[in-house]
Amino acid sequence: MLVHTIAEVREKVKEWKKQGLTIGLVPTMGALHSGHLSLIKKSVEKCDKTVVSVFVNPIQFCPGEDLDKYPRTLEADEQLCNGAGVDIVFAPSPAEMYPDAQMLSNDFLTYIIPPFFYVNKLCGKSRVGHFDGVCTVVNKLFNIVQPDYAFFGEKDRQQLIILRKMVKDLNIPVEIIPCPIVREESGLALSSRNKYLSENDKINALALSKILFNIKACYNNGITDVDALTETAYSYLNTCHNLEYLEFRDADNLEEKQTADNNTVVFIALKIGNVRLIDNIALS
Ligand code: AMP
User: Top-level CATH class of 2-179?
Assistant: First the structure.
């Protein structure tokens, strides 16, 4: 069932809560692919009712980013959700989510601001304010849907860690369920932004997963020195790649690691032309 208003969602949620049913929420920006589908399947399996939100959230895009050209495929998304047993596809307009939409700034909207330590690194460094936008919209969705469980992909692991922290710090009664990264057979992590890649770009994009898989193989062979592990990446990079970061960080609090261990995650971001791609791998 496709729903565009908060009032309609609230009405359904009220009914479900009365019946004592559990609710799962899968927040997305749409252009759904098998990665999203894996989250949806988990929710349908675990919860009595599943809500998938499809909302390209303007406040998590920084100036100059791809807000306007971000792929929007609501009809196909709805079909995929119906086939997967989703109860509500919640696709609000920006005006529905932000009625004071003409003033999407810190001065005119109550924001959730995650701790600086979690956002001053990795994606937060180049995407200033991005995680404020993510936390704010997820918090709004939590208040609208009141889910028991919310499903997030490890593909966006910094986001997952920050949202976990938000839920803990603010005592939000939602359990965050992490879901593993879904990849193409080639190794490329699925992403709605892969639609921007040409065939040639896609070949170049394999560098991300190749670098991560190789680092994990070296770690499994006993190499734990982060400088030595980082060194192994460079042979996969060519002039098409603009490396933004390759960092080893703690899986719980994102602290930097000098020596890799089983609680280390390797994070990578690089640009191919104008397309920015991210990936990560846990060394455990
Ligand atoms: P997005 O629509 O890009 O905001 O993503 C919505 C949710 O799907 C987020 O929790 C993402 O981490 C998750 N997701 C996106 N791509 C993948 C993937 N390849 N594997 C697993 N989860 C994913």
Answer: alpha beta
Q: What is the DSSP string of 131-172?
A: HHHHHHHHHHHHHHH--SEEEEEGGGHHHHHHHHHHHHHTT-
Distance of CA 273 from the midpoint of ligand 1 (Å) = 22
- The pLDDT mean for the chain works out to 96
pLDDT digits (tens, 9 = 90+) for 29-47: 999 999 999 999 999 999 9
pLDDT in tens, 147-168: 999 999 999 999 999 999 999 9
Q: In 10 A of CB 125, how many CB atoms?
A: 13
Q: What is the pLDDT of residue 100?
A: 81
Q: Which of 175, 5, 191 is nearest to 89 (CA)?
A: 5
Task: Determine the residue of 156, 179, 191 to mutate for testing ligand 1's pocket, defined as the one with the most ligand atoms within 8 A of the Cβ atom.
Answer: 156
Q: Check if the beta carbon of residue 72 is closer than 8 Å to that of residue 56.
A: yes
Say whether 241 is catalytic.
Answer: no
For ligand 1, atom 5, the nearest C-alpha belongs to 28
Q: Which CATH architecture has domain 192-282?
A: 2-Layer Sandwich (3.30)
Find the 56 Cα to ligand 1 centroid distance in Å: 13
